[in-house]
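Title: Prediction job returns without error message
Component: structure pipeline
Severity: low
Priority: P3
Assignee: unassigned

Description:
Job completed but the reporter wants confirmation the result is attached to the right record. Sequence as submitted:
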Amino acid sequence: MNDPAASRLPEPRTALLRMDEYAASERLSDVDRELVVDRLREHAVQGRLSHDTFLRRMELAFAARSRHELDELTADLPTEGRLTRALARAVGTLATLKVRLDNAWRTPQLPALPLPRDPAGPVKIGRLAGCDLKLGDESVSRVHAELRLEGGVWLLRDLGSTNGTQVNGWRVIGTVPVRAGDRVSFGSVSFRLALASAQTARA
């Protein structure tokens, strides 16, 4: 059965991350995403969304990085009452759990990149021997990117690399804030940022 709602979803696009976009994405909470998923469940129960479209939009809701992306997922759906939403929550719980488990299994285990507790200066990343973090992969530029600590906040800047720098799947344009737990990629080499332990700092 053709689902007209499926054709109205936005096409995937290459994501570019700037400081203002990163700040907007940080304002989204799990509560924001759950509210949107509740509405999607509600309309799936009423037959306005097919099962496949519901699952796809639910995945997009959990991956959304801005309020605009969340709003697009329900822009073509009418508003309903609380009773229907309660019913939708009850029947959709297992589907939500399935998507979360699937996403967890698909997430690769990445090597940790410790953030120094008291760096002497910017941490240069690239293929050159003089870089603080030397990466031998050919997708990494000679001097690819740098991390620096300013006012207690770590900032990541791409230094005009050929294959780009990404944070959580978003390409870095200019300088963006990062923190422990973020996934960073330099070319095709990826890490999970982590706070350096006291033992690592002494070493």
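Comment from assignee: result matches the submitted record. Residues 82-106 form the longest helix (25 residues).
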